[in-house]
Amino acid sequence: MKRMLTSCFGLGRLPLAPGTWASLPPAIIFALLFRFGASDVLISAVMAALILAGSAVCVKFAPAAIAATGKIDPPEVVADEFAGQALTFLAVPFLAAGAISTAGICVITAAGFLLFRLFDITKLWPIHKLEKLPAGWGILADDLLAGLYTTAVLAFCFKVWPAGAFGWFDA
Fold first, then answer.
1. Is the pTM of this model over 0.85?
2. Is 164 helix (H, G, I), strand (E, B) or coil?
């Protein structure tokens, strides 16, 4: 059961890009909540719950996957990507001033998803150093920092992007 949870119910056992697959559920949940008019507080609360769930599973149960596979960061452990991707979207409702159109939600979700995967895969400084933390903490911490980097880039984009550009934001 521990390995099932750390693999996000099998997403981590998919043959190609398991971390990418595990990043999809938080992105989809975020987009659906936004699209169907959930409040900013509710969207952020759901993202916070996803962060906490993924983080707790990773820290508590990743050592079992490490022991079973003999790898420091087993590819099947993707609860860290799940938590990091949710962290990407935690503050977005408060960064976006005003209502966002459906096209805008799609663009924001895609940008957050792709940027998170980019930062997670490339492991810019000091993301890579966090992998040296013990067991589940090392697996988790680099993804949380990748999520924070992505949030910072999205915040910058919200700050410099003209309101109403391309019809992504409702006037």
1. yes
2. coil
